[in-house]
Structure formats: C-alpha cells, structure tokens
Specification:
Elements (H helix, E strand, L loop, with lengths): L3 E2 L9 E3 L6 H4 L15 H7 L13 H12 L11 H4 L48 H4 L2 H4 L8 H10 L3 H9 L6 H14 L6 H6 L14 H11 L76 H11 L24 H12 L4 H5 L13 E6 L25 E3 L11 E2 L4 E5 L5
Parallel strand pairs: 4-6
Antiparallel strand pairs: 1-5, 2-3, 3-6
Bound molecules: heme C (HEC) (2 copies).
C-alpha cells in the first residue's frame, strides 16, 4: 500500500479534467444570460407596495448582483466547517423558512428562535430584521448569520477569505460590481439583493385579486369558504371579523410594526424587541416583528418560537387563547381592555384557514432563479488527482470513504452535503469520475 494519507485542509487539491481546466461552469449551473430578478408584480400589487419597499437607493437589485447573492446564499463554504449555508435554514421547498422548530447551526447547536421566512422581506417598511428587529437594515442583517457562533461561525475577516478562496467568485464579482474586489460590503449587498428578489405573487389569491378592484369583493376563483375566510380576515374585530388584516396588511400581507399578539401572559426568556436594546424597553417587551404571511402554509411551524405546528392552532390561538400580556396590542382587546375572544364557529375557523391557504404560491418552491445553483447540474467528468487532493466545493461530494487507489476509477456521486471525509485517502495519479446529480 503505497498510499499517501491526506487530511483535508492540510493539502491543497487540484482536479484536472482531461485537457480541460475547471471553470465556474463546472461548479455552478448558471445561465449565460442571468435570470431576471426584477420581475414586475401585477398592477394591483405593485401599486400597493411601492411605498413600503425597503430597498435602499444604494443597493438596487441587478440581475448579476442577485445571481452572485444566490451563489453566496447556497455556498456551504461560508460556514466554519463547510456544512451549512443560508439555505440550510431558509429552504426553498419550505417557503424559505425552516420546518424545524429551532434551526440547527454548523456545529449542531440550536438557534434561539424559529427560522422565519425571508419571502417578501423587502416589503417590511421599517426595514428592520429578525423577530426582535435587532438588525437595522437587510444589508446589516445578512452578515450576522455568517458570524453567529451557532449558525455559521465565521469571523468578519473569514467571510471574504472564504469567498476569495473559491475559483468561481472572481467572474461573479466582475459581473456584479465591475471588478473583482471581494469585500464584506459587496458580499452583504449581493446577499441582500438576492433576498429582496424573493417575492411571492403567483398564488390563487393573486389570480382572484387581479380580477376585482377591491380585495373585499368576492373572488370568482375562490370557493364560498375561501371568500368567507377572506372576509373574516379583513373585517375588524368589532364588526365581527378576525381583525387579521389590521396587522397582516397590504397586498404583501406584512405587518407595519412589532406587536404583542398575546401568545404569553408574561415574557420570561424571550423579551422580543424590548429585550434587544439596553436598557430593556419595557413598552416593547413581548412584541415581535412579523414580516409576511404570504405562503404561510409552506412555512410551519409558526410564531417566533415555532410553538404552533398548524394554521388551525394559530387560528384557535386568536379565537380563544389570547393572553392578557401587559403589552397586548389594542387591536386584540375588547371594550373592557380584556383579551378578545372571537368565539368563531368551527366553520368560520376552517374558512380562515382555507383563506390563508389561498396565499400558497408553489412557484416560490420551484423557481429556478431562487434555487440551488450548485446542485442541479448533471455534470460528469473524469479527472486525475495531480498532487494529492481534491478541491473542496459544494458541487462535489465524496461519498465513498474508501481509498482511491492509483489508477482505479471511482464514481463520486454528489450527495446532500460537501463534507469531505477527513480520513479520505488518495494518491497522486488517481483517476476518478465525478458525477453531479441533485443535492439540497
Ligand atoms: C442555522 C440556521 C440559519 C442560517 C444558517 C441562516 N439563518 Fe437566517 N435566520 C435563522 C433564524 C433562527 C432567524 C431568526 C432569528 C431571530 O430573529 O433571532 C433568521 C432570520 C433571518 C432573516 C430575518 C427575516 C426577517 O423578516 O426579519 C433573514 C433576512 C435571514 N435570516 C437571512 C439569512 C441569510 C442571508 C443567511 C446566510 C448568510 C442566513 N439567514 C443563514 C436561521 C438561520
Ligand atoms: C395586533 C396585531 C395582530 C393581529 C390582529 C393578528 N396578528 Fe397574527 N401575528 C402578529 C404577530 C406580532 C405575530 C408574530 C408573534 C410572535 O411570533 O410572537 C403574528 C403571527 C401570525 C402567524 C404566524 C406567522 C409566522 O411567521 O410564524 C399567523 C399565521 C398569523 N399571525 C395569522 C393571523 C390571523 C389569522 C389573524 C386574525 C385572526 C391574526 N394573525 C391577527 C400580529 C397580529
């Protein structure tokens, strides 16, 4: 056994594919002309949200900028041990949220709160981010998970180092910014552009809404039950409705400010917005941001701690479970100042749920422009390890832990992650075939 033992990280690997040098096209499945990231919204929607868009004039969405952001969003090299990307916790198939109650970071640790959706993030007019609004802009927010010790674990300096390391970023930065200078500021701008591009506008609700002048009119594509639920959603509580539109408003179904919706009588461990600054702001204790409930069916579980598994439970909370928190929103109090009880019938509760499901937009889960650019390739190439190694990249996953013997041919089929087995062994001159199929 004349094998040279290799420990990933200690040796730099190079792949040579026949007579071809590996280019970014070998790592990434990107179109030659970038996808369109400024898709126009239907008129009723565009007019309604024009004034609540938090995009700064210093960072408008460009197709090349959002493309770079897309690659960064899915790149696992941006976590300390290269196991987690933004998309690990904001999954396209789960409405860009996380079906786990709490998310799991690079080292197995859990986040303090539920990973919420990032869909329609651009239409939170206050432009503040996280459940407790601790990030003052989206550009500020996107660098935080990278440096969070539970989530991705990098230092500020490591962020641009990790990006510089990857061969595919050079061209992507030139395309996006005109030159290949890599900085945290540019990384943040590109990530923010990608996040702002993720907007839902192709739901059953949108189809119906486009045919009427006013959302209160019945939609002809809705069932009787869905129209009833819509009415309950938008009608204020004193008029017999659920008052939901008062806080989940506009065509983006987005809130205007943090509120307390009475899920707890007192705040103990999580003080919400009130606890995000020092000294604690008592009048904001227990208030939380909620950005958009579009596509809510796909982003269970619900609330900042993911306490409700279903929309039925959410509706039951508003129907019978609102607690008298000291900062409970006035909208959810009755004339005596007590928490309201909606006392809805089973049919009314079901109608509300049915209406919220009309906000489901399955195209969000399948739009290629928001999908993982590393993994839908069906690349297949053969190569030789020239000097003991293997390039680490999301696009290639070594599944086999067996040794690669000189001159033997192995098929490396991409799996779900990029971790190269640390005891992976190879010898210069090993021939292999890498095949990349799907991965998530
Ligand atoms: C380990 C899981 C995890 C990873 C990785 C992660 N996030 Fe998050 N994300 C969360 C959680 C949990 C929250 C809510 C945290 C809070 O509010 O305290 C969140 C909140 C957000 C928000 C706020 C949304 C809003 O409406 O306020 C945005 C935007 C966001 N993440 C984008 C990103 C980006 C971009 C990346 C990659 C650079 C990323 N996340 C990586 C779990 C994760
Ligand atoms: C006073 C404002 C207010 C009203 C009225 C209100 N909500 Fe909410 N809603 C919130 C807040 C704030 C949150 C997030 C609270 C948290 O996580 O602690 C929330 C969360 C939700 C969520 C979960 C969102 C997520 O991302 O997990 C759903 C679904 C929801 N509300 C539906 C409704 C429905 C249906 C009604 C009407 C019956 C309603 N809301 C009325 C403020 C309100």
């Amino acid at each position: 056994m004349n094998l040279r033992k290799l420990v990933i990280g200690s040796v730099i690997f190079f792949l040579f594919v026949a007579s071809k040098t590996i280019t970014s096209a070998d790592y990434l499945n990107l179109p030659i002309t970038p996808y369109e990231y400024n898709v126009p919204l239907p008129n009723f929607y565009a007019n309604n949200v024009a004034n609540i868009d938090n995009s700064p004039i210093t960072n408008p969405i460009s197709n090349n900028g959002a493309t770079l952001g897309r690659v960064l969003f899915y790149d696992k090299n941006l976590s300390l041990n290269r196991t987690v990307s933004c998309a690990s916790c904001h999954k396209q198939s789960e409405g860009f949220s996380d079906s786990r109650t709490l998310s799991i970071g690079f080292n197995g640790g859990t986040t303090d709160r539920h990973g919420m959706t990032i869909l329609n993030a651009r239409y939170y007019q206050r432009g503040r981010f996280f459940w407790d609004e601790r990030a003052v802009t989206l550009e500020d927010q996107v660098l935080q998970p990278l440096q969070n010790t539970v989530e991705m674990g990098l230092t500020a300096a490591q962020i641009s180092e990790r990006v510089t390391e990857q061969p595919y970023y050079n061209q992507l930065f030139i395309n996006a910014f005109g030159d290949n200078t890599i900085s945290n500021d540019r990384i943040s701008k590109a990530l923010a552009q990608f996040v702002r591009s993720i907007v839902s506008y192709q739901s059953k609700y949108d189809t119906g809404r486009a045919t009427v002048n006013n959302p209160n009119q019945a939609f002809s594509n809705f069932t009787i039950q869905e129209n009833q639920g819509k009415q309950l959603f938008f009608t204020p509580i004193p008029q017999g409705g659920g008052g939901c539109g008062g806080c989940h408003g506009t065509e983006a179904f987005v809130s205007t400010r943090p509120e307390n919706n009475g899920i707890d009588a007192i705040s103990t461990t999580d003080l919400g917005v009130g606890g995000a600054s020092s000294p604690i702001r008592q009048n904001l204790v227990g208030t939380f941001k909620n950005s958009s409930i579009r596509n809510i069916e796909l982003s269970a579980p619900y609330m900042h701690d993911g306490r409700f598994a279903t929309l039925e439970q959410v509706v039951e909370h508003y129907n019978s479970g609102i607690q008298a928190h000291p900062n409970l929103s006035g909208i959810l109090k009755d004339a005596n100042g007590d928490p309201v009880k909606l006392n809805f019938s089973a049919a009314q509760k079901n109608a509300l749920v049915a209406f919220m499901k009309t906000l489901t937009d399955n195209s969000v889960a399948t739009e290629v422009r928001w999908s993982n650019p590393f993994c839908q390739t069906n690349l297949s190439f053969t190569g030789t390890i020239s000097s003991g190694g293997f390039q680490s990249s999301n696009s290639i996953f070594v599944q086999s832990t067996s040794q690669i013997l000189n001159s033997s041919t192995v098929n490396l089929v991409s799996g779900k992650s990029i971790i190269l087995n640390p005891s992976f062994e190879a010898k210069a001159g090993s021939v292999f075939k890498a095949q990349i199929s799907t991965c998530q």
